[in-house]
Amino acid sequence: MADAKTECMSSSMKIFAARCLIALVVLAAASFAFANPFRTRIITGTSSPLVITVPDDHFLKITNFSQEGGTDRGVVSVTLTGDENGGTANVLTATRVDLSTGPNSQNAPEVINRAIIAGPARVTVTPVIGATLLITYRKESNEGGGGSNNIVFVSPTPGATTTPSGSPFPTLTP
Questions:
Q1: Could you report the per-residue pLDDT of 51-66, keeping only the tens digit for each?
Q2: How do beta strands 75-80 and 121-125 pair?
């Protein structure tokens, strides 16, 4: 009797483990299919310009834009494509990581700045002669407010009410 019970429990545990494994594989596959990975590109002085198209209801998050070498600074420029006013603006300059000598040398390391660009837009990074630029970015959808760390609490009861007590003006006592 005990052997049959043990065999039945062993069989149900194997089925449970198999179901858990299948669920884990499906969830892992979904995370790879829908994840927006960060991308890193290296742009040298002989490269062609990097052009990133940001569609409407998306945004581009730039987390690193650095430069080694060269005399001019690398620049991220944005052209608005959906606005009737349009226009182009430089939104981010490269952070110099080399502490070379000369007229353009830096005495201390610079802070790496970040930028978030809402679409629709066209983002361009033009190569700099004699420099190596590195940019790390990710395109994200803006639908449903994804990526927000805000927590919203909804309560069926009304919020707190205040009742006046005393005078709204302070009184001085000698």
A1: 999 998 899 999 999 9
A2: antiparallel
Distance CA 61, CA 138 (A): 5
- Give me the residue label for tokens 């837009």: 121
Work out the angle at residue 53's Cα, subtended by the Cα atoms of residues 59 and 76, and round it to the nearest 5 degrees. Answer: 80
As a whole number of angstroms, the distance between CA 99 and CA 112 comes to: 15
3-state SS, residue 121: strand
pLDDT in tens, 54-103: 998 899 999 999 999 888 999 999 999 876 677 899 999 999 887 655 66
Q: How far apart are CA 105 and CA 83, in angstroms?
A: 39
Tokens read off for 57 = 């209801």
Q: How far apart are CA 112 and CA 133, in angstroms?
A: 13
Percent of the chain whose pLDDT exceeds 90 = 39
- Residues 108-127 have pLDDT tens digits of 667 788 999 998 999 999 99
| Cα–Cα distances in angstroms (integers) from residue 19 to residues 1, 9, 32, 124, 151, in the given order | 27, 15, 20, 48, 33
Q: Is the pLDDT of residue 46 over 50?
A: yes
Q: Which two tokens stand for residue 12?
A: 């149900």
Tell me which residue of 5, 117, 96 sits closest to 54, measured CA to CA. 117
